[in-house]
Amino acid sequence: MDYIFKGFLDAGRLMASFDPDVWFIVWTSLQVSLLATLLASLAGVPLGALIALRRFRGKPILQVILNTMMALPTVVIGLLGYAFLSRRGPLGALELLYTPAGISLGLFVLALPTVVNLTLAAIQGLDPRLIVTCRLLGATPIQQTWKILREGRFAVTAAIVVAFGRVISEVGIAMMLGGNIRGFTRTMTTAIALETAKGEFELGLALGMVLLSVALGVNGMLFLLQRGKT
Question: If pLDDT is split at 50, 70 and 90, which confidence band does 142 have?
Answer without folding.
Answer: confident
